[in-house]
Amino acid sequence: MPTLEKKVTRLEVVEPKQLNFGKKWDYAPAPESTDLVKIAPRYELFIGGKFVKPKSGNYFKSINPATEEVLTEVAEANDADVDAAVRAARNAYEKYWSKLPAAERAKYIFRIARQLQEKAREFAIVETMDGGKPIREARDVDIPLACAHFFYYAGWADKLEYAFPGRKTRPLGVAGQIIPWNFPLLMAAWKIAPALACGNTVVLKPAETTPLTSLLLAQIIQEADLPPGVVNIVTGAGKTGAALVKHPDINKVAFTGSTDVGKMIMRAVAGSGKKLTLELGGKAANIIFEDAPIDQAVEGIINGIYFNQGHVCCAGSRLFVQEGIKDIVIRKLQDRLQTLRVGNPLDKNTDVGAINSREQLNKIKELVESGVQEGCALHQSECTLPKKGFWFAPTFFTGVAQSNRIAQEEIFGPVLSVLTFRTVEEAIEKANNTAYGLSAGVWTDKGSKIFKVSSKLKAGVIWANTYNKFDPTSPFGGFKESGFGREGGLHGLMPYVELVG
Amino acid sequence: MTLDISQTTVDQVGIEERAASLAKRSIKKETKINGIKLAMSMIDLTTLEGKDSAGKVEAMCQKAIHPLDPSTELRVNGHVPSVAAVCVYPNMVAVAKKALAGTHVKVASVATGFPSGLTPLPIKIEETKRVVDMGADEVDMVIDRGAFLSGEFKKVANEIAKVKEACGLAHLKVILETGELETYDNVRKASWLAMQAGADFIKTSTGKAAVSATPGVTLVMLEAIRDFWYKTGKRIGMKPAGGIRTSKQAMHYLVLVKETLGDAWLSPDWFRFGASTLTNDLLMQLVKESTGRYQSLDYFTVD
Q1: Is A10 in contact with B24 (Cβ distance < 8 A)?
Q2: What is the second-level CATH architecture of the domain A285-464?
Q3: A192-251 pLDDT per residue, tens
Q4: CATH H superfamily, domain A42-280+480-500
Q5: CB contact under 8 A, A465 and B226
Q6: What sections of chain B are H helices per DSSP?
Q7: ipTM of this model?
Q8: A336 to chain B nearest CA, in Å?
């Protein structure tokens, strides 16, 4: 938008009423320096405490989604590699880890946490380069939270009898863990920390588009001198994951990812005796009532859907706005959309980074197209997108109904669907009218309404007058097709122990 | 005047989080230089002490006209703008007016029983008329916080309207003294009330209360200005005052303005800093940007 500076005298009425978020005082590029990080040309599998070449002999490339540049190549684990990793984990479990006093386990986990904290900056930069998320988020959210999870669960390791009063706990054995590409290191921490604290050993498979921080974590684990095989990291795509899930010698499967894959995993482990937790998709409702603190609610909506480019399973992707404030909320959303800074993820002023992969970009485009086809009104940021890499401008739709595809399917991108309601009951009914149930948000100044609504919403996490708040002490997990089992907090110990005695 | 005081509420955690997140913008190089110069042009250079004298005010007016002495300006190779205005007590208006004659620097006077505002309305009106007669271009009035907190909104609004009338062509800045209003909800309500009653600017603080301008309070007021503009089409200016001492703080406030109200408000016509010591920190940063070194404070004038 060009700045047409017309001198306006005081108290003169200006038409049209449009705020101009232009370049009168623009921020100079502030890219984070990447000198600190050294990405090796090739990464091997981490099995039995060593980096080993894959038996498959295959490597795949990991690219920077913001530039499409190849960052490195990474080993692809086949069935034999996965088998070697599980054997190493079993061996470590039988020989060392299950015999170690709990307080000693805690020391190792604390050591990982401290090392991670020391190297936080390096991890943040690599996370941003490999996944496309803004450096501000990697620096302020992903990495500190990952550290916090290790610290938190290190504390539980020798206190399990207090977590389950009157019961004794026994570790399960070997845990096979598969994590997604949206919060690569953070998800690794969510999975590894409680498993180790409870006395299990681990085979972890990071997502194929974002394996790097898990491999850097493997280096830390090596430096922390964990007994070999306690944590093993095998890289690869779906086939590697399938080999891990189906391996007969694992006792527990933990998966975070799409609902479709979650269903496949559940079928695969049925009848095997393997314990299972699934943290799957979501289509969260963010409900904003007339009596909400509107400007803060709008911030929460923006944060809820555009944080991490909307690649968040608990993203507030459905906005339910009470009809009386619909126009004002939509106008504020439009204004706020224009101030979101989209671009180079390494720039410290970037709010919205790159889409994680071409495949995901195509999926977002397809669903947005369906929204347009079905007659919903499209509102998009006027930002200029970089030419190379995978990008999608922050978007929202108005005039959306429950029956539209964009109101039902998980888009997993920076796309919000705005729906309206009239009464509290209608809001609850519509919010629950979905196959998912991971999270929700309620915005109102009235405390009693918060309790009334949140007690009736079928969602694992409900935020009141805020959104996307995470803490290692707080459990996270879903209802319905969003999965089962809880991660984080005391509840997060449950999936990794057997209660005996 | 029909008064509309029903306002959206403000969530304390949310507003403070948003204000703090905008402190994370990286302001470097030409953005910093431009930001510092912009901030300089927005300063209401202030002295409001019981011991203010003609000599003190005259010296401050010289600083207001050319904040950086011309020889240093030559060395750093860049012109530094004058500040927007000086802000003084009523008795100093004539002195300031004379010292600033022939420049673009405006004279602002506090009035209406500053800083408490607890004088009878006729005296407030008379004081306002006097300072305008003496040459004040801008009047910084205070609201009666006691009346506001006891729910006498009409009384507060009426006083503002009457003072506005007494201002004639002078611009009226209404000081809410947000430190005494305590809650963000009150700040929002008082902002709305002042804008309806005829304020040209709304201003946070007198500088005399325990808490002065904060980013959170400023953001609440900027959002109120935005909503008022959408509702009425009238642009209202904003002036945080008190406690803003460093360039870094000033840049944070400019970011708040840029990302809340946009380009139009990034101008001394619509945004001011009430400050006394900010000037020299801005200059020190400016010199550092061009020489790469921080100069000792001895190189910056203390007027």
Answers
A1: no
A2: 3-Layer(aba) Sandwich (3.40)
A3: 999 999 999 999 999 999 999 999 999 999 999 999 999 999 999 999 999 999 999 999
A4: Aldehyde Dehydrogenase; Chain A, domain 1 (3.40.605.10)
A5: no
A6: 12-21, 29-41, 54-65, 70-76, 93-99, 121-133, 145-149, 153-167, 178-181, 184-197, 215-232, 247-260, 278-291
A7: 0.94
A8: 8
